[in-house]
Amino acid sequence: PIYLDYNATTPVDKRVLEKILPYFTEHFGNAASRSHLYGWTAQDAVENARQQIADLIGAEAKEIVFTSGATEANNLAIKGLYELFSTSKNHIITVETEHKAILDVCKHLEKLGCETTYLKPDSAGLISLEQIENAIRPETFLISVMYANNEIGTIQPIREIGALAHKNDILFHTDATQVLGKVAIDVDADNIDLLSLSGHKLYAPKGIGALYIRKKSKASQLIAQIDGGRHERGYRSGTLNVTGIVGLGEACEIAKNELLAENQRLSILRDKLEQGILQNIADVQVNGNIENRLPNLTNISFGGVDGENLLMSFRDIAVSSGSACTSATVEPSYVLKAIGLDDNLAYATIRFSLGKFTTEEEIDFTIKYVKEVVESLR
Ligand code: PMP
Question: For this protein, what reaction is catalysed (predicted)?
Fold first, then answer.
């Protein structure tokens, strides 16, 4: 089938793979081995990758901490800060449409005494500064708002949210997993204290990610959640995943060089797909913030069809009905419900996400194919 699920995961870029391979075999050293060339070679590769990642987001290399992915980065950020602040402040502000790797962390902390405000977005998936301002309490230590939503692509006013957080002496975390390589990020200009990212959404391997932690902020005192040999300056113990790290670094460098051209190409293809569906199929709607969303994604609801049949009928294209991470359950997407879709329409919604290897021929085929399938189900 034609792969149109790049927001679930991406294939590894061949250039990334080539860069990684020697670190499985000849350069297999432990980056923590300080007494021989094997260790130094691995450590050099890790530090080079750390700089490549920092360069993509305008950070310093020493502000990057490697994790197993964005889920772990989110856990480290939120639990680490909760533990740091727990005797003084205990309130977090976040959003109903965050990834489960934020929401379930907050739920867990609530059992320990944390209080969370979940802001409700508008029908485009946006939250307002006013909503945040109204939710701020003297006990608020963290605002966590995702940069862009994984299901509907809506990009939040990150820079303004960060400024509001700082005005109130609150730390600002953003889950930018879906944004790296798609939108230019600058942690200074965007007022970000902590940022989560993941390799496998960016043409690097699965099982590697990072947390950016601002050096000159209270965030840098967060409490580690995995203890051991004090790797990563004590923030995250465990022998480093050198191959994953090298891959993530290379993927970030490629993204930095190719971001603008590639995203222009993708948004043209995405618009072609979206217009093709809107113009050729009756009773469809596009979800999310059309004015400001991820360039590679469109989220479309099809009226008058049974949702479960819809997804199962798309044999020739690989797409998803919202978040793959919650697809073990047959609940309608909580993101779509939060922006006001009813259960039926939420079930009958498809996320099409394009990527580096998507071609115009694939988009032409998909438009015709979706029309056929939807009309046969009606
Ligand atoms: N946050 C967002 C917004 C995501 O889309 C994902 C991946 N579905 C994650 C976090 C989890 O990332 P990882 O797979 O690296 O744990």
Answer: (sulfur carrier)-H + L-cysteine = (sulfur carrier)-SH + L-alanine
The answer, yes or no, to whether any atom of ligand 1 lies below 6 A from the CB of 98, is: no
Residue with tokens 């840098």: 220
| CATH 3.90.1150.10 given to domain 2-8+259-377 | yes
Distance 70 CA to ligand 1 centre (A): 5
Residues 6+ apart with CB under 8 A from 77: 144, 173, 194, 196, 211, 213, 219, 222
User: Is there an atom of ligand 1 within 6 Å of 208 CB?
Assistant: no
Q: For ligand 1, what atom is nearest to the CA of residue 324?
A: 8
In this structure, CATH architecture of domain 14-254: 3-Layer(aba) Sandwich (3.40)
pLDDT in tens, 73-112: 999 999 999 999 989 999 999 999 999 999 999 999 999 9
ipTM surpassing 0.85, yes or no?
yes
Determine whether 325 is an active site residue: yes
